[in-house]
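Whiteboard transcription, Tuesday session. T.W. wrote the structure tokens on the left side:
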């Protein structure tokens, strides 16, 4: 079958042919209909230190996937053959302390598709049945492939009441733009989008941002406060920028909260005593999706048409053109980019 591989250590991917997998006990086999490219895939392409510490080549890439169930392993009798499903990319162990508490999203033995095990940039994907979520034929393959990162936005917005609130979103990649739409659905009165990229700020407005602030790499506190027109109740930090993290702690009102999803390349420096402790701020680290709560809400939003995830998807490539997709991602002139297998 066709697959995008990290064939060996170093920069780049290889498009080649590999054996089609067979589902084992408790697993299903999917015929991949679409896959989305994530910023993580760019890091894997570039072979940065994060990738080097986790991936043992050869490895099939890709973790944002939609597919059709085509075979069951032993002990599996659903979803029905032919069902379209979205994929949860984090495979959890089910027996560590975190899993026993129900905190599956922080399982200490998490294996990630396309990182620790073979992923979905391929014609077929084998994975545990617990990691597939039926979405129905009314949801397009491209949209279903984007439900995994969309779920990150749903998770980020789940830590506080947003009804009537003012929210600032730092970083308007696909997850940041999705979080704007989720915040609006949850009743946020004003959502200020902050980013350096005009292309993405345009998507942010289409997803529901009431104001946009074009960042320039320096603190934009005054401009953001002017756009907010009053207190800022919540910040959703999706960029990983140390400047943005510090701004968020300064800008959010006493008693407010911040969800932190972005991962940066440099340490964050904040005034913990004055900007967090003495203001009574609540900080929440967002990793993955809470299972099953995030997926239940995400699926409902998409199935019911509450949020138009398709607006986030701007480009599509055949899987053989993965290099072009990565180049486009690096340019910043895109929203969510999808891939389709050719065999």
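and on the right, the sequence the group agreed on:
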């Amino acid at each position: 079958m066709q697959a995008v591989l990290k064939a060996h250590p170093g920069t780049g991917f290889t498009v080649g042919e590999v054996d089609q997998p067979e589902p084992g006990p408790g697993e299903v086999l999917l015929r991949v209909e679409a896959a989305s490219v994530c910023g993580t895939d760019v890091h894997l392409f570039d072979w940065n230190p994060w990738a080097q510490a986790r991936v043992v080549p050869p490895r099939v890439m890709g973790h944002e996937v939609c597919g059709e169930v085509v075979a069951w392993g032993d002990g599996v009798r659903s979803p029905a053959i032919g069902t379209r499903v979205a994929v949860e990319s984090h495979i959890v162990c089910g027996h560590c302390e975190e899993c026993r508490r129900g905190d599956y999203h922080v399982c200490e033995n998490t294996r990630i598709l396309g990182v620790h095990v073979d992923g979905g940039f391929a014609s077929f994907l084998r994975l545990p049945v617990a990691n597939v979520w039926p979405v129905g034929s009314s949801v397009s393959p491209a949209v279903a492939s984007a439900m995994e990162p969309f779920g990150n936005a749903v998770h980020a917005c789940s830590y506080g009441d947003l009804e009537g609130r003012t929210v600032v979103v730092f970083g308007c990649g696909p997850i940041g733009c999705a979080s704007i739409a989720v915040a609006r659905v949850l009743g946020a009165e004003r959502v200020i989008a902050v980013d350096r990229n005009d292309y993405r700020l345009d998507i942010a407005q289409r997803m529901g941002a009431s104001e946009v602030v074009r960042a320039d790499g320096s603190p934009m506190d005054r401009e953001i406060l002017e756009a907010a027109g009053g207190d800022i109740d919540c910040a959703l930090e999706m960029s990983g920028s140390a400047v943005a993290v510090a701004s968020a702690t300064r800008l959010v009102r006493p008693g407010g909260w911040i969800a932190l999803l972005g991962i940066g390349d440099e340490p964050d420096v904040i005034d913990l005593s004055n900007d967090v402790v003495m203001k009574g701020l609540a900080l929440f680290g967002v990793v993955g999706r809470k299972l099953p709560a995030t997926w239940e809400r995400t699926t409902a939003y998409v199935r019911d048409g509450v949020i138009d995830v398709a607006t986030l998807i701007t480009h599509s490539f055949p899987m053989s053109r993965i290099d072009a997709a990565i180049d486009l991602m690096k340019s910043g002139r895109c929203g969510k980019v999808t891939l389709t297998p050719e065999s």
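Someone added at the bottom: Residues 170 and 194 are 5 Å apart (CA to CA).
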